[in-house]
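TASK: fixed-backbone design
INPUT:
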């Protein structure tokens, strides 16, 4: 009887204690969900702000990439000015709605995937909570860019078509999808996919690698854990300059293949497209056409993108922390 009295409470305590470790799991899951949601929201905003800021330059660059016209700063200015005179101020942002439809999910997926790949690679290489070494840093960026490009590619095709055609040809994004599917086939929505992926690997890899490396060097030499907004813009600009310069010829090939159906060309493969561009326009003037504009547009866009992402992340974390404290 005495044993029964003593064992009762012990048994009760055991039942009460055993579930305690499991009770932390919902909290950890919630934290992970919040982290992913924060990354998605911050990435979406970063992409939207950056691309809208440089949309007129982006449209001008695409128009030069897909034509045999020789590029120069003077010609670029004339094209922008004539577009403004003939089609109005807001025509400079033509195709930006398609860009937003693509860039918001693209940037959200890319930034979120980058955070997740960093975490996975950190666990694999044993760098939990620390900055990755150079090679995993490059791999995380490349994987993030590839993941985002694979999931959003048809939207990039639509945006390129809208940028180089008069507004009478395609009235909206849905119209582009319908006409391409009906007149050229669904496979056309993935034309230029291979050069896109081949270009994204060095572009995203070098962009994220450069930005993360510059932040780490800044922290090591300044003693500050976080760079200031102007410093973030500068680091992002350097990242954009290096990333886009490395992948630019493939970007030109991608645009040519995407817009071939409406511009009277037939580009069947990456190699043949490159050969035709070089034969007709030369190596530098053809495959690097518009690169000088990209050296203006790219660093601005990437700088704004990285800075917006980081600052939005910080703001959201602060908001969540203050909400948690008030509960």
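OUTPUT:
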């Amino acid at each position: 009887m005495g044993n029964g009295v003593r064992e009762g409470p012990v048994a009760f305590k055991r039942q009460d204690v055993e579930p305690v470790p499991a009770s932390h799991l919902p909290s950890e899951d919630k934290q992970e969900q919040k982290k992913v949601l924060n990354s998605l929201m911050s990435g979406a905003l970063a992409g939207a702000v950056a691309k809208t800021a440089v949309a007129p330059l982006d449209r001008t660059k695409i128009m030069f990439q897909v034509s045999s016209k020789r590029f120069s700063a003077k010609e670029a200015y004339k094209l922008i000015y004539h577009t403004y005179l003939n089609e109005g101020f807001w025509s400079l942002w033509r195709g930006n709605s398609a860009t937003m439809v693509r860039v918001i999910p693209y940037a959200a997926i890319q930034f979120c995937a980058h955070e997740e790949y960093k975490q996975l690679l950190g666990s694999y290489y044993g760098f939990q909570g620390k900055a990755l070494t150079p090679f995993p840093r490059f791999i995380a960026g490349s994987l993030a860019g590839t993941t985002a490009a694979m999931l959003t590619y048809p939207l990039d095709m639509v945006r390129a078509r809208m940028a180089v055609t008069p507004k009478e040809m395609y009235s909206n994004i849905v119209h582009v999808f319908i006409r391409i599917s009906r007149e050229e086939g669904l496979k056309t929505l993935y034309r230029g996919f291979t050069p896109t992926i081949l270009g994204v690997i060095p572009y995203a890899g070098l962009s994220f690698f450069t930005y993360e490396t510059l932040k780490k060097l800044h922290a090591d030499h300044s003693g500050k854990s976080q760079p200031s907004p102007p410093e973030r813009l500068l680091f992002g600009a350097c990242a954009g300059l290096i990333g886009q310069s490395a992948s630019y010829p493939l970007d030109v090939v991608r645009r040519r293949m995407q817009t071939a159906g409406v511009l009277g060309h037939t580009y069947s493969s990456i190699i043949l497209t490159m050969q035709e561009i070089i034969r007709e326009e030369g190596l530098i003037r053809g495959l690097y056409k518009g690169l000088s504009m990209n050296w203006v547009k790219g660093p601005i866009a990437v700088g704004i993108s990285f800075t917006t992402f980081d600052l939005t992340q910080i703001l959201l974390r602060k908001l969540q922390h203050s909400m948690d404290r008030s509960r």
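COMMENT: The first helix runs from residue 2 to 17.
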